[in-house]
Amino acid sequence: MLKRNIASGIIRHLVKYTGYRDRPIEERQLRFQNGCREGHTEIAFAATGTNLQLVFGVSSGNFAGDPRECDFDKEHGKVHLKSHLIMNGVCVTWRGWIDLERLDGVGCLEYDEERAAEEDALLRDQIERYNRRVQEIEDKHRAYRTGGVQPPHLNHHYHGHHGHLGVPGSGGGVDPHLNHRQDPEMEVRLRAY
C-alpha cells in the first residue's frame, strides 16, 4: 500500500525540521545547518506527523558522498536534500528542500526502484545461502540416521560415567558406535590419567 501511495504521489507534503525544539530559533537554525553539513537531519511531514531521520552524503555509508544529496547552492536561503531509506519495507528516496530561516519546506517520498532491486537481490542471496545451509544440515542428519557417518560428540573418556568405554573394572566392553575413536595410544594415555 505504501508503494502504491508513493507511486501515486500522495506522500508529498509540507515538512518541518524537528530537532532541538526546546532551543531558540537562532540555535536551531545553526544546528540544522551543521547537521546537514555532517550528513544528517530530522524532519517530519506536518500533515501526518511522520518523523524521518534523514542520512545523506558520506554519513549514508556511501563513501563517495554525492554532493547533490545536500545542496546549499541550488537555491538561495534553502537547502535541497535527498536521502535513501527503507520505510515499512519499501525502498524510497526522500527529496525536498527546507528554508534555512523558517526551518520548514516541501518534501516527498519516491519509490526507489534501483535500490529496491539491489535489496531484493541481497535478500534472495541471503535466503539461498540459508536454504543451502539448512539442506547441508539435513543431509548430515540423514546420513547419521542411516548409519553412513557417525555423529560427532564429546569425548566421554574424561567423564568416567560410561561403563561401555572398555575401562578395566567398568563392567563393559567397547560399544560398537564408538569404534571409530578407539585409538590404542589414546586409550593408554587416558587410562593413565
Automatic annotation (TrEMBL):
Q: Does the keyword Ribosomal protein apply?
A: no
Could you tell me the Gene Ontology terms of the biological process aspect for this record?
regulation of transcription by RNA polymerase II
- Listed GO CC annotations: core-binding factor complex
Which spans of this chain does the record mark as coiled coil?
Answer: 120-147
Highest taxon of the lineage: Eukaryota
Q: Which UniProt keywords apply?
A: Coiled coil, Nucleus
Predominant place of localization: nucleus
Instruction: Kindly give the InterPro entries that the UniProt entry links to this protein.
Output: CBF_beta, CBF_bsu_sf
| Compartmental location | Nucleus
The terms under GO molecular function for this entry are: sequence-specific DNA binding; transcription coactivator activity
PANTHER family cross-referenced by the UniProt entry: CORE-BINDING FACTOR SUBUNIT BETA, CORE-BINDING FACTOR, BETA SUBUNIT
Question: Which family is this protein grouped under?
Answer: Belongs to the CBF-beta family.
Q: Write down what this protein is called.
A: Protein big brother-like
Q: Which organism is it from?
A: Ceratosolen solmsi marchali
